[in-house]
C-alpha cells in the first residue's frame, strides 16, 4: 500500500457548534489527498513553517494541497520560542499583504507549537479572521495545540500574553513526521501526555507507565493511542469551557511553575514540555504538602516523568523570583497565585496556597540543581 | 437637575446572545454613577485615551468608575490615525503587564474611533480576552464603532488589516462630550450618519436633510436621534451577520473608495469620515453609471454630503493608484474589487464593476481637486 492509500488510523471530533472540526491522527497523512478534503477551497493559501521543518515537509504539503488552491505560498519563520514575538508574527502579515491575500485565504501551520500558536494568531487577526489548518509536527503540538484554539505570542514581560481563542478548520497529526523529532522534543511532548493521567484518567496513566519504552522508541501505534487519548481528554475539558473561565484551567497542571522556569531562564533555554514536566513535579509536591495526595502518588508520577527523559529538578532561581514570575502569570487573579493541584489521583483542582509552603516546595524541588 | 441625575435619554440593545450589550445615549452620562452599573466589577481597570481627550475627560471618567474597581490606571496614546499601529498598541500591553493586570481587568476606551479600535483589539488579545467598555467621544465613533465589535490596527500595506471581532460589555455615548469636537470631526461623523439613508432608510435620509443645520449646531436632542437611529440600523444589519460574511458589507458603503483615499494620501491626511463622505459620492457615481440609480438620486445625496461640510471631490491620485489600493482592500476577494453600490434608494448591494467604468468615475470625481 502506498502512503497515499493509508487511511487515518484515528480521528477525534472536536464539537464546538459552528466551530467544530476533526483531528486526523495516523501515519503518512501528509501526502494522502483525502486528508485535505475538508479544507475550504480558496484561491490563495499560505503555508507558515520554520527553518527546521520547512526543508523537511513544506514541499510535500504544498504538493498535497495544490489541488485545493490556485496559489500556495510559503512563509518560513526563524525557529524557536525566542522568536514567538510580534516582529516574527509580522513576517506573516507582511507576506499576506504583499501577496494581496484576501479574507478567504487559508493558512496552514506546519511545525511545532510556536508555529501553530503564531499562525493561529495571525489567522485570527488577519482581516479579523481567515481559515487555518494545523499540521503539528511535534508530539507536544499534536497533543497540546490540536485542541483548545489557544493562539498567542509572547511579550517581554510574559509568555502567551497576547493572543486569541481561535479554532482551526482541521488538524492533521501525521505521526510519520515525528521520525525527525529530536529526542529531547519527544520527551517534552510526553510531558503533556503524562499530564492527562493525574488530572483526569488513572487508567491512561497506567497505560503510559506500561508503554513508556515503546513511546520513546516512536512506535506508531502507541503514539497514535497516546495522541488520541490526550486529545479526547482535552476535548472533553475544553468542550465544557471553551474560553477558560474555570474547569479548563486544570489543563495547566504543571504550567504555573513551568512558566516561571521558562521566563526565569529566558524563553528557549528549557523546552516548554521540559518546564511543564518539572512544573508537574513541583505541583505534586505542593499537593502532597497540602495533604491532598500521599507521598507514594507524588513519587509514582515523578518517577514516570523522569523515565520519559524529563528534568525533575528545577533551576535555582530563588523562591522570591519564582513567586514574582508566577504573580504575573494568567492564573494569578486579583494578585493571588492560583495553582492547579491534584486533590485525588485522576482529579485536579485550582486553588491558592500559603506562600510559605510554596517556598518550601521551590527549595525542595530545586536542590541539587 | 444636576448632571448626575440626568437619565439616559435613549438606549439601544445589541442582541448577540451571550455577547449582548446596551448602548446608552444621552447628555452628561459620564458623571452619572448609574451609567456604569452594568460594568463587571474588578480589582483593576485601565482607561485608554489619547493626548487630546484624556485632559478633557479622563479624570471625570476615573472618578465615576472608582467605586467599581480598586485601582484605575490611565494609558495615554498619541492622537491620530497615524498612530493606529502595533507600536502604539504595544503601549497598552506594556502598561497592562507592568501593572500585572489579570484577565478580569476592565479596559475603558475613552476617545474616538482610533482609541476604540486599538483598545478593543488590546482587550481582545490581552490574555486572549478581557472585558472592555467603549466611551466614544466623537460622533463618528458613537455611530460607527458602537455596534459591530470591529477592532483593528493598521499595517503599512493596508488599513484595519490586523484585528478581531470583539464585543464590548457596554457603550456609553455621552453627547455632552461632542461639545469639544472640532467642526471637521463633527462633519466626518455625519458622513457615517448620512450613510444609513441611502443603504437602508430613506425616511431617515429625509430627516437628516431637514435637520442638517441643527445637527451641525450640535443640538443634543437631534444628535441623540441621529446616533440612536444609526446604531439601530447598524445593529439590525450586524445582528444578521456578526462576522461580515455577506449582508454586513453594505455598511462599507463609501469605504472602498474611501480607504483608497486614506491610504493614497497617507493615513491622517483626510479624516476617515471625510474619505467615506467622498467615497460615497464616488460609489453613487458608479451606481448611476451602472444604471442602478438615477442622476437625481445621486445628486440629492451628494448635495447632503456637501451640506454636512464634507469633501465631494477626491484627491487626484490617478485611476491606476486608486485601483491598486482598492485591490488590497478586504472587500477584494479572489482579486476582484467588490463595491457597495445603491441599487435602489434605501437599498445597497455588493458587486464588482468593469475597470473602465471605475476609471471613469475616478476621473469624474477627482477633477478640479
Automatic annotation (TrEMBL), chains A, B:
NAD(+) binds at residues 79-84, 113-117, 137-138, 150, 159, 177-180. Zn(2+) binds at residues 192, 255, 272. CDD domains: DHQS. Its EC number is 4.2.3.4. Its main location: cytoplasm. Residues 75-187 form the 3-dehydroquinate synthase N-terminal domain. It comes from the Bacteria. It is found in: Cytoplasm. Keywords: Amino-acid biosynthesis, Aromatic amino acid biosynthesis, Cobalt, Cytoplasm, Lyase, Metal-binding, NAD, Nucleotide-binding, Zinc. Pathway: Metabolic intermediate biosynthesis; chorismate biosynthesis; chorismate from D-erythrose 4-phosphate and phosphoenolpyruvate: step 2/7. Binds 1 divalent metal cation per subunit. Can use either Co(2+) or Zn(2+). InterPro entries: Dehydroquinate_synthase, DHQ_synth_AroB, DHQ_synth_fam, DHQS/DOIS_N, DHQS_C. It catalyses: 7-phospho-2-dehydro-3-deoxy-D-arabino-heptonate = 3-dehydroquinate + phosphate. The keyword NAD applies. One of its GO terms (biological process) is amino acid biosynthetic process. HAMAP family: DHQ_synthase. Catalyzes the conversion of 3-deoxy-D-arabino-heptulosonate 7-phosphate (DAHP) to dehydroquinate (DHQ). Belongs to the sugar phosphate cyclases superfamily. Dehydroquinate synthase family. This is 3-dehydroquinate synthase. The lineage of its organism: Bacteria, Pseudomonadati, Pseudomonadota, Betaproteobacteria, Burkholderiales.
